[in-house]
Write a structure and sequence with these properties.
Blueprint (H helix, E strand, L loop, with lengths): L3 H9 L43 E15 L3 E15 L3 E2 L10 E16 L3 E6 L7 E8 L5 E11 L2 E4 L4 E4 L5 E7 L8 E3 L4 E4 L5 E20 L7 H7 L1
Antiparallel strand pairs: 1-2, 1-13, 2-4, 3-4, 4-5, 4-6, 5-8, 6-7, 7-10, 8-9, 11-13, 12-13
Amino acid sequence: MTDPTSILQSMLKQEFKAGLDGASLAPAKIVEGHEAAWGGPGNLYPIRPYTISPAALEAFTVRERIHVRIDGLGEDIVDLHGLSMYRRHQPRAGEGGELTWVNSTITAQFLALRVTGHSDVFGQVLVANTPGKPEGARVRPTPDREGKLMPIKDCVTNIFPQFEIEQLGTTVNTGDQVVSLESRVAMVPPVGDVSRTSRNYPLYDTEGRQVGVLLAADIEIGALLHHVPIDSIEISAELAAVLA
């Protein structure tokens, strides 16, 4: 199987003429999907709404915006750009039902996230995931008020982010609390999607002391840069618990 770490490292060292770079994503003041959202220029294959896609290893450009307060430094909203990588599993249908977009559940393992940006308050900021912890996303059937399944589906991404902050001189994280970002999607992979947190999270230093708060965050999925079809894999119990 292709090593996701080596792919991500090689991407960070080169320019992508075929895809959209991070700077082309929506600005921080107006967060909205860009033209790649409907399988436009920059994607490796057409991504159609309301269509089931087979399992794959995929990498994307991403834009992340974080609102952070750090004790002794202050508070700022930081816009960051970089790359993310998922291992997307085979879609599955509800019990006894035919596999369609509307009734499908789709999960993915979050393999890598690296985004960077600059803050007048914090200096250089780098946000990454925690590979040693189970992180992933789930898209599931979504009923309306009358119980009828809708084509627009609920999506939840759960990650354990790490924040490397230059002016603090260390890395902080959310400890054992997984950060959940929610959105509604019409296709998978969710190119152009923006997912957001709905609560704040304490931030801890390497000694376990609270040193700040992640007040809010959102992530926008950009252009598809890398797509490798894969066989369906077994999901660990730890990852299954995060995706439940």
